[in-house]
Amino acid sequence: MKQINDVSIALVEEKARQIRRDIIQMLSQAGSGHTGGSLSAADIVSCLYFWEMKLDPARPDWEERDRFVLSKGHAAPVLYAALAEKGYFPRKDIFGLRKLGSPLQGHPDMRKIPGVEASTGSLGQGVSWAVGMAQSARIDQKAFRVYTLLGDGELQEGMVWEALMAAAHYGLDNLVAIVDHNGLQIDGRICDVLSPEPIADKFRAFGWETLVVDGHAVPDLMRALNTARDTKGKPTAIVAKTVKGKGCSFMENRAEWHGKAPTAEEAAKALAELE
Amino acid sequence: MEKQATRDAYGQALIELGQRYNDVVVLDADLSQSTKTAGFARAFPERFINAGIAEQNMIGMSAGLAACGKIVFASSFAVFATGRAFEQVRNSLAYANLNVKVCATHAGITVGEDGGSHQSVEDIALMRAVPNMTVVVPADGPSTRQAVFALYHREGPAYLRMGRPSVPVLYEAEQEFTIGKGIELRQGKDATLIACGIMVSKCLEAAEKLAQKGIEVSVLDMHTIKPIDEELIERKARETGAILTVEEHTILGGLGSAVCETVAARYPVPVLRMGIEDRFGQSGKPEELLQHYGLSSEDIIKKVYRLLQKR
Prior knowledge:
The structure holds 2 protein chains of 2 kinds. Chain A has 10 helices and 7 strands. Chain A is globular, with a radius of gyration of 17 Å. Chain A has a single domain (6-273), classed as Rossmann fold. Chain A has helices at 6-30, 36-40, 42-52, 76-86, 125-139, 158-169, 190-194, 199-205, 218-230, 264-273, and strands at residues 67-70, 146-151, 175-181, 184-185, 188-189, 209-214, 236-241. Chain A is 41% helix and 12% strand. Chain B has 2 domains: 3-168, Rossmann fold (3-Layer(aba) Sandwich); 183-310, Rossmann fold, CATH 3.40.50. In chain B, helix 1 packs parallel to helix 8, helix 9 packs across helix 13 and helix 10 crosses helix 11. The model of chain B has no long low-confidence stretch (mean pLDDT 98). Chain B has helices spanning 6-20, 32-35, 38-43, 55-67, 78-84, 86-94, 123-128, 141-153, 199-212, 230-240, 255-266, 286-292, 297-310, and strands spanning 3-5, 24-28, 48-50, 71-77, 100-105, 134-136, 158-161, 166-168, 183-186, 191-195, 217-221, 224-226, 243-250, 271-276. In chain B, 42% of the residues lie in helices and 21% in strands. Chain B is built from 13 helices and 14 strands. At the A-B interface, helix 5 and helix 6 of A face helix 4 and helix 6 of B.
């Protein structure tokens, strides 16, 4: 059981604020990209990188490290911001996002950036990678844990359910899947486009230990991750209820911010809210 | 003549590989009895994962295993491994340049009675078009074994194409096998037959019969479709001035196309392509189907006569 205290909570919250600021700045400079779903995941990703995971930025290839797979790869900015904040590469590199020759591709490329564990972006595939990584740990009797973050719209991909079935069948208790449940996708509300609800019931029916939490409440996320670590014999799903565009009032809960970058003016307004 | 199915040789090679190397992991999608990965599963149960009838997740899991340092052999029928899971192969394996070998059996029309839905005629074209992919189509059992070992040692993703039926054994067990280097099985000055997979032995049969009529053709086993042996193709184009390609695959995008691309760029000579002529397969016995689709040794002989008129 990892300690949850005011210091650790304050650190994760502060890192999440920094990550959100970096997301706004890099996307504004890039001129395109996925703002809403990067912001909705910031608290989750901060919690993983600054509290939960066993990592050593100086040794990105360390075999015993925990793995994080961003299955919703379009939220690359949240990952890049966390990696830079953690010290995998200099913060100034985030401004190369989406530019020719930059390692910071529109979707994460493991061959170009230290700390990126999987090349993702085609939805549904990252969760399968995570299942394979968890199986690799088991084959080698290694203690590392694997975390993957999915979008709720991503659950529409059939392949996700193949992976969920496999993880439960093989009893992969070293695997945690977190759903960034912000309720929106490019074309609108997930419930209007193609409803994946009831999400938690589906995970339970697929044999996963399933927790539903507020994805912006850091202590709740921490408690869920603790529960996941204590769960034996099956993988854990954390359905994290989030707000798309969280932290920038004019972006919150608006589907049009799925695949749009803020203008300089909008960025200034957003940054003022994230002071 | 001794015969062996390439998939049987694959299954045996995997066990050998598993004994020798600890980092080998094998995945299958509920076809382990047919693809012959079942032997490995019995020998190394802790390194075998049955993905169930879920090829997309099989390829995705392979990526995760490879990202953790495993060398993964993932098997299914060709139509599912390259078709159902195409985009997983593309994005999870090839784009990330991972050490996963997609080893598919039951390729081509010689699947037989199961019919066209299960007869992959386009898999070479699909796999060849993907950056980073190596594509190997061995002609017999011994060269399949060699290919498995060669692919284990070759960094990056690869596609190994195998068939269902037993095919003549052409090579000694320790025949040298280098990925990207075609093998000249027969030398003749009048034309060059370039084949892969089961069509190599058909070409050798045809060459024998042609020799009796005074026509001497070269026969190449072009087991690696990508990267293709451009030097050998150019040399044979220069030496013989005419080429016939023969494959158990659509004539669009496979071996024939790869040879034409090379010939056009390096030393243009007449090329005729034999294969499945932009059609799907159907049920039947393998030999009947080869006859029906014009891929018998007699068909090859007829095509060589046509080719010689073009010289």
